[in-house]
């Protein structure tokens, strides 16, 4: 498999900046917490279809997101691949996507993951094991990210989008190690890492809500 394009992700970030600041009023808090170099995983709550582009436009570094293959339809397929995003088949273990994601981290890049797997309440209530595997396998630190305000209904012109020119808060948390330092990748170690991740992500989301005065 060809590694996701780092140059493409840079272009994707520029597009994300244009969309984010052109359509909404983002308030970005704690972006300095994202390591300026080296591999890092951004773990993002997922309650809205534009959470990915929002992160691409507000993160301080270009991001390669793992995105469900259903989004790669028609002209979006070559476009998303061209801006360095990763197509993942969620019906089973997608080894191509796994290899690409590990490649991003081994090359010192930023991998974006919605650990809930699909859009839900955006509260990190249900985490899949993929995030723990990537973090433990590569040793990349995890940075929790809360996107708040995108679920507000008042002022929407399009049901699936946040209110145009509405404020959206993007809050980055402190980087942390998901593993226990042993390097073990057993099922027990991954389960323990998943619990550790969920606790940290949930705590960050609660803190972000208090900080911004947002319910979601």
Q: Which keywords apply here?
A:
216 residues; 37% helix; Glycerol-3-phosphate (1)-acyltransferase; 7 strands
Could you characterize what this model shows?
- The chain is of the alpha/beta class and 216 residues long.
- It has one domain: Glycerol-3-phosphate (1)-acyltransferase.
- It has six helices and seven strands.
- The chain has helices at 6-23, 51-58, 76-82, 95-106, 130-138, 187-212; strands at 25-29, 40-44, 64-68, 86-88, 110-113, 142-148, 167-172.
- A seven-stranded mixed sheet has the order 1-7-6-2-5-3-4, sandwiched between helices.
- Helix 3 links the parallel strand 3 and strand 4.
- Helix 1 (6-23) packs across helix 2.
- The protein starts with 5 loop residues before the first helix and ends with a helix.
- Residues 118-126 have low confidence and may be disordered.
Percent of residues in helices comes to 25-40%
Strand content: 15-25%
Arithmetic mean of pLDDT: 84
* CATH architecture classification name: 3-Layer(aba) Sandwich
The computed structural class is alpha/beta
Total strands: the figure is: 7
Terminal CA distance reads 38 Å
CATH class: Alpha Beta
Strand order of the largest sheet: 1-7-6-2-5-3-4
> What is the alpha-carbon Rg in Å?
16 Å
Secondary structure topology:
Elements: H1 6-23, E1 25-29, E2 40-44, H2 51-58, E3 64-68, H3 76-82, E4 86-88, H4 95-106, E5 110-113, H5 130-138, E6 142-148, E7 167-172, H6 187-212
Parallel strand pairs: 1-7, 2-5, 2-6, 3-4, 3-5
Antiparallel strand pairs: 6-7
């Amino acid at each position: 498999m060809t590694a996701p394009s780092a140059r493409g992700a840079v272009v994707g970030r520029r597009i994300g900046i244009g969309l984010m600041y052109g359509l909404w009023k983002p308030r970005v808090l704690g972006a300095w917490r994202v390591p300026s170099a080296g591999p890092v995983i951004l773990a993002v709550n997922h309650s809205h279809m534009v959470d990915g582009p929002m992160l691409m436009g507000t993160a301080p570094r270009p991001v390669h997101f793992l995105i469900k293959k259903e989004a790669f339809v028609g002209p979006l397929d070559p476009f998303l691949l061209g801006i360095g995003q990763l197509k993942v088949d969620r019906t089973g273990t997608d080894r191509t996507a796994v290899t690409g994601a590990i490649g991003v981290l081994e090359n010192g890049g930023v991998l974006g993951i919605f650990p809930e797997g699909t859009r839900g309440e955006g509260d990190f209530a249900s985490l899949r094991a993929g995030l723990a595997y990537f973090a433990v396998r590569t040793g990349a630190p995890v940075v929790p990210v809360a996107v708040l305000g995108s679920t507000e209904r008042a002022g929407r012109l399009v049901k699936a989008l946040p209110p145009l020119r509405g404020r959206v808060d993007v809050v980055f948390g402190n980087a942390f190690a998901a593993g226990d330092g042993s390097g073990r990748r057993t099922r027990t170690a991954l389960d323990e890492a998943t619990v550790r991740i969920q606790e940290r992500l949930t705590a960050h989301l609660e803190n972000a809500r208090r900080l911004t005065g947002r319910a979601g």
